[in-house]
Amino acid sequence: MNLEPKYKNLALEKVRIYHERRGDTVQSFGLGQFDVVYCSGIFDFTKRDGRIPPDAICGGTGFDLTTVLPPEIDSIEPHLSFGFTTRGCIRNCKFCVVPRKEGKIRVVGDLLSLWDGKARDVVLFDNNILAVPDHFALVCEQARKHKLRLDFNQGLDHRLLTPEIIDLMKSISHHEYRFAFDHPSLIGSVDSAIALLQTHGIQRATWYVLVGFDTTFEQDLDRLNYLRGQHQAVYVQRFIGKGKKLGKEYIVLANWANAHRMFQALTLQQYIRLPRNKGYKKYMMELGI
Questions:
Q1: What's the angle, vertex CA 89, arms to CA 209 and CA 13, rounded to 5?
Q2: Quick one: which of 66, 36, 45 has its CA closest to 3?
Q3: Do 114 and 107 meet the contact criterion of CB atoms below 8 Å apart?
């Protein structure tokens, strides 16, 4: 059972391959009789709704940070053109469980351990691949050799950018690069990173902007307006934690900022004044917007 089916679940894919190799019949959970049910969840706030059988084997960050796959399953390389080449992270962001769950960063594979040999696109889930620059160079070399397009799905650490790293980034086919601007205290490093990227020919990137965790709405809007002024694209990530619910103003903020053309064309105030958004006014006025 994948509790968040819109996300690819590497652990369940390894479980599937393990049992298929043993000759077992494997299918998605539903009606019928099953000898064993595996269940995986990424988020602790995902609704369970009594869907999980009491005897299911459950794991994933949505359940706990300690349950791991048996070695004979975890060691499988699915070759599905998505996954990790490194695990762990050098940062200790308060909102992130990766350092607690995975520990210090380490190499666990390379591009060829993920690629199925056919796909032109490979999605990397690495949390901070730039923290291992020699490995990043190897992955880029493999992508060039096999003419693969890479998607660094979790973003790249803007604080680790160098001219050499940017040259490697530009040497490969890729989806739009993503970075993170998680807190107002990072404004100096973000400003330096944008300047460095633009100096070396990357004029625009997409910036994940965490909102509603330990910042005010005004601070969140300030970061977005800064990135808008730098002609960058953004993706607002509303913090959703167990027992925490953000106000409707954050929905408005995300609807505006995540529509890239709208974000560049209109300020938030102009967006709210669009006739189709008249329902937004009552709770945005309370914020003085």
A1: 90
A2: 45
A3: no
Buried b (16+ CB within 10 A) or exposed e, 208-231: ebbbbbebebeebbebbebbbebe
Backbone angles phi, psi at 111, to 5 degrees: -65, -35
- In tens, the pLDDT along 136-162 reads 999 999 999 999 999 999 999 999 999
Q: Which residues make up the CATH 3.80.30 domain(s) of the chain?
A: 79-285
CATH 3.80.30 fits 79-285, yes or no: yes
Phi/psi for 114 (5° steps) reads -105, -40
Q: Which of 193, 269, 186, 192 is CA-nearest to residue 225?
A: 269
* DSSP reduced 3-state for 217: helix
pLDDT tens column, 200-235: 999 999 999 999 999 999 999 999 999 999 999 999
125 closest CA partner among 93, 156, 161, 169: 156
Helical axes 248-257 vs 217-229, angle rounded to 10°: 10
* Closest alpha carbon to 87 in 71, 106, 73, 100: 106
DSSP 8-state secondary structure symbol assigned to residue 151: E
φ/ψ bin of 79: left (φ > 0), alpha (ψ from -120 to 50), beta (otherwise): left
In tens, the pLDDT along 261-279 reads 999 999 999 998 898 888 8
Structure tokens at 154: 């979790």
201: buried, middle or exposed (CB in 10 Å: 19+, 13-18, 0-12)?
Answer: exposed
DSSP for 154-187?
Answer: T---GGG--HHHHHHHHTSEESPPEEE--SGGGH
Asked whether the beta carbons of 238 and 250 are under 8 A apart, the reply is: yes
Number of residues that make up the chain: 289
- Whether the CB-CB separation of 35 and 55 falls below 8 Å is answered with no
